[in-house]
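Hello,

Our lab assistant flagged a job as stuck in the queue for most of the afternoon. It eventually completed. Since we weren't sure the result was trustworthy after the delay, we are filing this so someone can double-check. Below is the sequence as submitted and the structure that was eventually returned. Let us know if re-running is recommended.
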Amino acid sequence: MKYAYYPGCSAHSTARDMHESALAVAGTLGLDLIEPAGWTCCGATAAHQTDPVLAASLPTASLLKVRDMGLDMVVNCAACYNRMKVANHEVSTDPAMRKKVSDVVGRDYDGSVKVRHIVEVLLEDVGLDAIKNSIKQSLKGLQVACYYGCLLVRPHDVTNFDDPENPTSLDRLVAAMGGVSLDWPHKVECCGGGLSMSRTDVVISLTDSIVGMAKAAGARCIAVSCPMCQINLDMRQQDIEKQTGTRHEMPILYITQLLGLCLGISPDQLGLNKLMVSPASVIEKIEVHANG
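-- returned structure --
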């Protein structure tokens, strides 16, 4: 199964662990992820807040490269995924925007490239049965809080990915790994996203609420699919402790890292050594059960 894999800018910087774990899991499950030559930044929230034509044109430049490949675009970063889906929606529903974008990128684009998150591919193309059959190390009841954030499931008429208020895609993957996916109220609450640098006070408050709720629900770790969410929930735990005195010590893992462990991929290959909060308790639980 071949796909055009759009890694996004953070895959080669702050979210190398997201990128490495996606490639490792894909290789193990028989997914061929081909990086489009010359892909460019999707613009993220910066372009979206600056200029609507720029915000649609930046993703379109990469979507055109994928159209030339004749493949579906697979995205791991929830922010990149959202911007690609929004660009598709705008050029396919707004003729004036399509014309403006075509003038900017130098080619006409109709929004026809199918954009899919890697979780969609795992569920729809690989399938839960195949994933279960490939698992070498079960989670054995590990309690996981699945966190979706804002950009993966909203706006629903654009992303068309799962339920915007109570999504279950990550939960189904956790269950297939033998874990317990917790029912908790903060799975789509905002972590602060683009405010990470400009309003750290707001981010600290939001992340404290999210991680604290996951801990209260009994979570041993939080599973995410967005690099900004991962960074905020992982890195800000130190700031939370300094500001409030609360020490959460909650590991924040990408869903592909959790799945990779269950597939028998080494922690280093999955980038688990790059996390701020040690995932040792998660690794030890899986390995103890696997050996026992």
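-- support follow-up --
The delay was a queue issue, not a problem with the job. The result is valid. The beta strands are 2-6, 32-34, 73-75, 115-117, 143-146, 180-181, 221-224, 252-254. The two ends are 35 Å apart (CA to CA).
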